[in-house]
Amino acid sequence: MATPATVVVLAAGQGTRMRTPGPKVLAPLCGRPMLGYVLDQALALEPERVLLVTGAGGEAVEDFVRGAFPEAPIGFVRQAEQRGTGHAVMVCADELKRASGAVVVLYGDMPLLRAEHVAKLCELRADAGAAVMTATAENPRGFGRILRDGDGRLLGVVEEKDADEAQRAIREVNVGVYCFDRERLLERLPRLSTENAQGEYYLTDIVGMLVEEGEALPSLRLEDERETIGVNTIEHLSEARVGIQMRILSEHMARGVVIEDPATAYIDFGVEIGAGTHILPCTVIRGGVRIGEGCEVGPFTHLRVGTELADGAEVGNFTEAKKAFVGEGTKAKHLTYLGDVSIGKGANIGAGTIVANYDGTNKHHTDIGDRAFIGSGSILIAPSKVGEGALTGAGAVLTRGSEIPAGASWVGVPAHPIGAPKKDSKG
Ligand code: UD1
Ligand code: CA
Q1: Is 87 a catalytic residue?
Q2: Would you state the pLDDT for residue 427?
Q3: What ligand 1 atom has the least distance to the C-alpha of 144?
């Protein structure tokens, strides 16, 4: 692999078309800021250093990166004013002067680009001043167009706003990703000008300069246009989400997870699922959730932060779990809320059970022992405890602080031991 020494990630754009507060590159995609996927692309190239160019909201971006990539060699460069892609690389010039080897440029808002194609681009460059990534766009609107001569040799890039009608008809577009020879890039950056329709420093002009100097520049044309989805609007974000989601699902399926309907399985980045587990339709699984082997999840199930299912657990129809540990072989299959609860092995949580974890001010924890049987429609007000092999009758309401001893059976409202007089509610 032709490893670049530096990967520059352009992420200073304000993202005003998103119409949402905060830097665009932190927009969530399958439970993770979009920039996370781009930094994965950059780091997959094994560069000596990644330089992240940030703008307004840069502190938040830097905080995310330090937290999510604590060990990675990522440096930050602030571009106070966004004066174009060429300017974004100019602000890195001092850092690049201290580097060696090739320079790759990526965009912080292009999460679907595959690192293997960037690596290919670096290989293709060989000794040329630059290699340019291109794609054939169904609808080239907004992209710079690739200019070639009659023999197909690359001549340069023309921005849409600077293009004439014939140029606008070209469907081969500039992805915006390049591999540059560092020295030739640094020599030409100071020669960029803002004499163009947008009054910006165009990085694309470097390509034109090299060609004018007589260089033959290689290019890599992507086969799948979807890799070039650049997120500028909420609608683009949703398009990118579909692509990222499918990749996450494919990885799980390759490891033996059965996903019955990929179109309605919403599984965030960073979920662990064991082989032989079945994910049934209309299921939402949030980041950090861990699911063992041979489990069944869904249909219509929502597993939220901090939830773990041990091997063989089954959670189904209209069950929501948050910070819940569900033990081996335990079943909670119908109309249930499991909030802040640990459930042992082989327990059965009856239809309509609610673990009422929130008292309006604080959240409290509930423990349910191995092989406990929670009758349908039970409400367990936290904190409370159900011992091993204990049972609640249908419709039982366990008041706050209740502790059912192992093997005991409690029924009624408020729940009390069968045969014993009703105890006062402690609630
Ligand atoms: C650029 C290319 C265009 C290409 C398109 C692909 C130039 C002049 N044009 O268009 O040929 O088809 O990308 O998407 O390079 N950015 C900064 N600082 C700036 C300006 C941009 O960090 O001053 C970042 C943005 O955050 C974004 C990326 O660079 O991630 C591209 O910027 P954008 O304005 O979307 O691209 P264009 O310049 O329109
Ligand atoms: Ca622009």
Answers
A1: no
A2: 43
A3: 11
Q: For 205-226, what is each residue's pLDDT tens digit?
A: 999 999 999 999 999 999 999 9
Ligand 1 pocket check for 35: Cβ under 6 Å: no
pLDDT at residue 13 in the model:
86
Task: Reply yes or no on whether the pLDDT at 420 is more than 80.
Answer: no
Convert the pLDDT of each residue in 265-297 to its tens digit: 999 999 999 999 999 999 999 999 999 999 999
DSSP SS3 for 83 = coil
Residues in the chain: 427
Query: What's CA 259's distance to the chain center, in Å?
Result: 19
Helices and strands counted in the chain (H then E): 9, 35
Is 70 exceeded by the pLDDT of residue 422?
no
- 84 alpha carbon to ligand 2 midpoint, in Å? 6
- Ligand 1 center–CA 31 separation, angstroms: 25
Q: How far apart are CA 156 and CA 142, in angstroms?
A: 16
What domains are defined for the chain?
A: 6-228 (3.90.550.10), 252-417 (2.160.10.10)
Token pair 């499918």: residue: 246
